């Protein structure tokens, strides 16, 4: 395919892929070699598409650092689209309550395909924090507490498809994310209703999560708490888990009461 014209649906898919790669880089921006490597496309194709996206305002290019960033047009589109998705407004009171009652950092994440994306963060009062999770960061389902919480309540065939593709997860995040380890965590999550991530991404950085369900009773979002290991001792996990489940249930019920189309 290298060197051939990119047309039709293929170019749409490639544009979406590049936008997601740049979005994962967050504020630091993405360098061209990193984008080429992540996309699997040729350098000329990537550069041509990035330049076209920048011309439309969908990306920005920093002449100083050579990095690519999400552009102003995406911000405008996102602001308009936000009117159709009230989840952030519904979740903010719950995030504030979680942060106030626990002192930990509280987050809302959304499922996008086979990943979760962190949307909103509310900082707690405890001075020592974990910075693994932040707005815009993406993790594969089965990685991080939000992704585990969502994956645990997906249909079994979907779970098996995701578990069959754990090679890249294990390669990127370590042997703790093997299919067997993920399966064990999913089973524990189904028993308690909430998930516990015991420093699987970064040693000493723990997290807990609970799924939020849409009108069709599918897990589509998750609330989570993150912090240092000492704040997630077994004797405190039940307390944190109960708070997460209560707030996730409140948001689920609010979503179901909303008019269709919101």
TrEMBL record:
DNA-binding listed as a keyword? yes
Q: Name one GO molecular function term.
A: DNA binding
Entry-linked Gene3D superfamilies: 3.30.450.40, Winged helix-like DNA-binding domain superfamily/Winged helix DNA-binding domain
HTH iclR-type domain mapped to chain residues: 9-72
- Domain IclR-ED as annotated: residue spans: 73-257
Keyword list (alphabetical) reads: DNA-binding, Transcription, Transcription regulation
Q: Which Pfam families match?
A: HTH_IclR, IclR_C
- Superkingdom of origin: Bacteria
Q: Does the keyword Aminoacyl-tRNA synthetase apply?
A: no
List membrane-spanning regions. Answer: none
Q: Which biological process, per GO, is one annotated for this protein?
A: negative regulation of DNA-templated transcription
What PANTHER family does this protein map onto?
A: HELIX-TURN-HELIX TRANSCRIPTIONAL REGULATOR, ICLR FAMILY, TRANSCRIPTIONAL REGULATORY PROTEIN
Protein name (record): IclR family transcriptional regulator
**Species this chain originates from:** Arthrobacter mobilis
Give the source lineage, highest ranks first.
Bacteria, Bacillati, Actinomycetota, Actinomycetes, Micrococcales
């Amino acid at each position: 395919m290298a060197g051939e014209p990119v047309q039709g649906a293929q170019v749409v898919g490639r544009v979406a892929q590049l936008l997601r790669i740049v979005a994962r880089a967050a504020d630091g921006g993405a360098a061209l070699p990193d984008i080429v490597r992540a996309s699997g496309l040729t350098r000329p194709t990537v550069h041509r598409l990035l330049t076209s996206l920048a011309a439309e305002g969908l990306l920005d290019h920093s002449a100083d650092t050579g990095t690519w960033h999400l552009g102003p047009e995406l911000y405008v589109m996102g602001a308009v689209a936000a009117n159709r998705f009230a989840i952030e407004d519904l979740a903010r009171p719950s995030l504030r309550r979680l942060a106030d009652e626990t002192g930990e950092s509280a987050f809302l994440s959304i499922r996008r395909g086979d990943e979760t994306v962190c949307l909103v963060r509310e900082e707690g009062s405890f001075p020592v924090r974990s910075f693994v999770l932040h707005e815009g960061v993406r993790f594969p389902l089965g990685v991080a507490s939000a992704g585990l919480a969502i994956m645990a309540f997906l249909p079994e065939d979907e779970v098996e498809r995701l578990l069959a593709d754990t090679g890249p997860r294990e390669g990127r995040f370590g042997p703790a994310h093997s299919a067997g380890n993920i399966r064990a965590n999913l089973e524990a999550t189904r028993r308690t209703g909430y998930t516990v991530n015991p420093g699987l991404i970064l040693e000493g950085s723990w997290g807990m999560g609970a799924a939020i369900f849409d009108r069709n009773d599918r897990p589509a979002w998750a609330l989570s708490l993150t912090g240092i290991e000492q704040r997630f001792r077994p004797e405190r996990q039940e307390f944190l888990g109960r708070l997460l489940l209560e707030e996730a249930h409140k948001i689920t019920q609010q979503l179901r009461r909303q008019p269709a189309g919101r």
